[in-house]
Amino acid sequence: MNVLVINCGSSSLKYQLFDMSDESVLAKGLVERIGIEGSKLKQEVEGKEELVIQVPMANHKEALGHVLDALQDNAKGAIKALDEINAVGHRVVHAGEKYSGSVIIDDGVMAALEECIELAPLHNPPNIIGVKAMQELLPHAQNVGVFDTAFHQTMPQSAYVYALPYEYYEKDHVRRYGFHGTSHKYVSQRAAAMLGKKIEDTKIITCHLGNGASLAAVDGGKSVDTSMGFTPLEGLVMGTRCGDIDPQIITYIMAKEGKTIDEMNDIMNKKSGVLGISGVSSDFRDIENAAKEGNERAELALDVYHDNVRKYIASYAAVLGGVDGIVFTAGLGENSISSRATICKNLEFMGVVLDAEKNNVRGKETFINTDDSKVKIMVIPTNEELMIARDTVELVK
């Protein structure tokens, strides 16, 4: 079975075509600047020259039409006809409390996604457009929705209810939802396999550390707590997001500086995090280089970030009542040797002991703990697209 995985952003989309008989990638590509001047599609197929298409793409439907044409390209494509695509898996950011797992998309699911637009106004609309486009362009293929929030729907109520008047949860659906669920699910499953245990018998802390970052406490394969909340702003310090702060700071700055709600949202989401502290960049590579050159604010940004992650790891160990493994994944988690080492420092009391030599690795699935470490430490490159494809096959079959 061939599964096309689609991830529609506001002005871009990523895609991969999988042959699920062996989970091989037949093609992968990226479309950028949808609805903006300079639209471009790039596609890679192993053993073939990269395909680049530069034509105006006014919307996601037009872009997906070009994707399907590219997949069938005589010289640089991966298939001969569209009927070779059996199903389409869609990454959808928000499903609210509607779904605790992936689902085949029907009219009821589409209505639920429309209802969740107010919870994810930047992400759900393009996700929905992508589904509608594929329903029209590939009418023979079933569409499956895989939700960022679904994996965290197993959290107990005590983990997702905020200490606000309960009516805001009942009436306005204000609660912790959590995100990066597909990534946390994938790496926790891989961690169980690496540990040689049934996932039902594991307690794992997954650290998805990229420009956006979150941790999850995964008990027996189920998320029981996660750091992102009602929105992706809560939790860890991130590239440009502030993470956890005293809520009163918001009204204090608004009153003192005369900021509007929109301006304050922009500050917290796009101008804070390690960018805000360092004044250098939201890219950790730039900050690390600046710190090496003696930039004190860059050093401070890294210290704040590492301390923040370490505190969450320790707190989730308490939530789980013990830990079998800690997983580092996503851009920073997979590639920053120094960040992993600093985060694990002072966790020896928990039985977490990093091996400096084993930690000298980037983007490779491996153990990086010492032989006598009670808690296993793992680097596992995330693969959200493959997780989406697996869920799609399971449902369609």
Automatic annotation (TrEMBL):
Keyword ATP-binding: yes
Co-factor binding details: Mg(2+). Can also accept Mn(2+).
Record carries keyword Cytoplasm: yes
Site feature: Transition state stabilizer: H180, R241
Pfam families given in the database record: Acetate_kinase
Catalytic residues in the record: D148 (proton donor/acceptor)
EC annotation from Swiss-Prot or TrEMBL: 2.7.2.1
Cofactor(s) needed: Mg(2+); Mn(2+)
Catalytic reaction equation(s): acetate + ATP = acetyl phosphate + ADP
Assigned keywords, A-Z: ATP-binding, Cytoplasm, Kinase, Magnesium, Metal-binding, Nucleotide-binding, Transferase
Location relative to the cell: Cytoplasm
SUPFAM superfamilies: Actin-like ATPase domain
Positions that bind Mg(2+): N7, E384
Domain of life: Bacteria
Uppermost EC category: transferase
NCBIfam families: ackA (TIGR00016)
The protein's assembly and partners: Homodimer.
Record's function text: Catalyzes the formation of acetyl phosphate from acetate and ATP. Can also catalyze the reverse reaction.
Record's protein name: Acetate kinase
